[in-house]
Specification:
Layout lengths: L10 E3 L7 E3 L16 E6 L2 E11 L16 E5 L4 H28 L3 E2 L26 E2 L4 E2 L18 E4 L5 E6 L2 E7 L5 E3 L17 H8 E8 L5 E9 L5 E11 L7 E4 L4 E3 L13 E2 L6 E6 L6 E7 L5 E7 L14 E3 L5 E6 L13 E7 L5 E3 L4 E2 L9 E4 L5 E6 L9 E8 L4 E9 L10 E4 L5 E6 L4 E7 L8 E3 L4 E2 L17 E4 L5 E6 L10 E6 L4
Antiparallel strand pairs: 1-2, 3-4, 4-5, 6-7, 8-38, 9-10, 10-11, 11-12, 13-14, 14-15, 15-16, 15-17, 18-19, 19-20, 20-21, 22-23, 23-24, 24-25, 24-26, 27-28, 28-29, 29-30, 31-32, 32-33, 33-34, 33-35, 36-37, 37-38
Length: about 550
Amino acid sequence: MNQGSLPSSPTVSDPFNNGVDIPVAQVLEMPDVQLEETPSRSVQYFNETIIIAQVDGIVDEQFEATPTVHPGHMVASSLTGEQKLRDKLIIIIVSITSLVVIAMNILFRSTDKETISSAPTLHPSAFLFPSNSPSNPTISPTTTLTPWKIISPQEGFYSQSDGISFPFSVSLSYDGNKLAILHRNGIVSWEKINSNEWVQYGTDITPEKLIVDSNLSWEKIIDKDLISTDITLSSDGRKILWNIHYSKGDGSTEGLAVLYRFSNAGSMANKWTRISEVFQMDTKVGNPEYQSSVAFARVSADSFFYPDDNVFPQWGVVSKLSFDQSWDESAYLSPSIDLSDTGFGSSSSISGEGNVVAISSPFSSRTLDGLHEGKVQIFSIRRNSLWELKGSELWGTFINNNFGIVSLSSSGNEVAVGTPNVGRGRPGQVWVYRYSDSLSDWVGIEYFEGNSPSEYFGQMISLAPDGNAVAIAAPRGGRVCVYKEDLSDFAKRWSLQGRCIDLKQDKDIDPWKDNYLDFSISLSANANSLTVGIPSQKRLGISGDVKVYEFLPR
């Protein structure tokens, strides 16, 4: 399987072949070998055989059993005995490069107070020379970054002082000019009318419009039985899908979904009206640790996806709105059969037109050993109206990676996959893949890693609808970072879009220890507008809030 390369990784010069650079990157393709054999093999980097290397060990993880090298692994490798000179020269070159980078860091820090050096790692990679201790070296020179500007109202969109985490969910339209906020008392929508002025957009949508069963109590669901609840705006900001999942008290769970449309004509002017029946999902959906299980097609704005685990094998269901306001279950997507609990559908995402779906199974294992690397399957619909896998399955890289927080682009040709690596003692990670028509497979185009395990980097991700930028939250660290692809660059490198947004007011405490999963983020299509839903900081007595940020290049 092609797990992808890192085209922007650094290189070192090949002293035996003038003018040729040796890429420093992940293994792209390699025959399966046992590490205890420490064989010399032709290792593929960037689809080119560049060196005869001896595999010494996997950098990513220390396995209890003898592991097998797979594509995508970071490996420590050494050169064969005939290439000692090359080995020494590479070490010298990299050492000099490291000294230069350190000197640049010191220089920049002393000359510019706005210099940022704490952003998550962009390009972890494996060196091609021996190392006493495996590592994830990076070359990320310090740069001066433009800050994001807050354009939300100074008085806020909504405030409350009862200590309840607010908001539950936020969503931006593609152009970033319309915003929907789900809070304790329902949904409120806003529209930007100039650079920093917002007005309410349509009437409030109250919980009574979702809770239609007289036996249900909204207050009881919110205070006791809530599992998850989310909203998603359509691309033009004129429709909202609201879904909620809760415990019924008898050990079973239930989900509800309903669609609203903004009307601005006649007696219905400036109002949100329900245009669908309330769809009941008698299935186990909604896992707040993996964002939303329910995904809304934001361009067609007439269909959504949810996983159904009440059948065997498990199904993914695409429901489409009918002319009579009912929901027609128009498609069933079947994952590979697994007798264990894989967490199928813990996170899902759907393309703008509803013709591509990404589904995660974060507890899946490659083998029967139950390593829980996690996987993502992506399905697309063909001309014969049948759904099939689009490219290969995407897998995590080590034990308990729980790979599987997903976000698709509007076209369905890019996907971001994250994992905070909770409990692993290592920083969170986010991968970005792009579908290659020539290879009929997914190719890894970028990889990001957090600064520390405690910040939960990658817990929330939002891939821009255009597919060339991603917002990543580290909720325990109180930071949100946006990375964007440079389309003018031949290598199409990704870099920070402005500074990482720092939301913490007190660096010495952990204000979101108990409610970090209540963060939510939403990125506009051009990645110049970002909304962050910030839960309350109970230990500081600070209510929750919503901030909208705009990036204005200098």
